Amino acid sequence: MNSRSPVTSNWRIPRAILGRSDVDHQRQAQELWKAGLADRDGKLASDLADPIISSICRVATRVSHPKEAYAAHEKLIAKEGKASLVLDMSKRALVRSVATKTGPQGFASELFSEVVSYLAARDLPSYIGIEGRISTPSESIVLKNELRKYARKAAMVVPVETSTSGWSKYVAKVTKILASGGSV
Q1: For 78-97, how does the pLDDT look when each residue is reduced to its tens digit (9 = 90+)?
Q2: Of 30, 36, 33, which is closest to residue 6 (Cα–Cα)?
Q3: Is 133 helix (H, G, I), strand (E, B) or coil?
């Protein structure tokens, strides 16, 4: 189960609009990204830009089966001795990109999709059935899918770079699009 988003000023606007039927999904995604990126002194952006994530992205070019992707991910994580929520999300993104044969670009789009889904899932269940908000769990799933689709598209607009420095620049460009609500 996800923890609710922190009670900070960064999350005031996302909480006010998340799940509202009169606010389009792009605006909801933008506010989630702005809050998420500002949270924990920018730790989300640095977690996404971590060199290990660029290494994981490169795995998408050299393996052809989801089981190989999973094993390669586990090996990289064990070697680095790191653990984080973004690394967990990267595992799902890698396996999905290898299964769909979408390579590094697919990995990146799935990773950003996972992150926005997590950001929304922290608070979205609390708003189901509240007047002016989503009324059913099914509508919640539809909204999360729209948020994920928007994140995927933003990640696909920018050509992915798999080198460590290139990945960091890629993450900066994509997060800027997502937090600014840029059209994709």
Answers
A1: 999 998 999 999 999 999 99
A2: 36
A3: strand
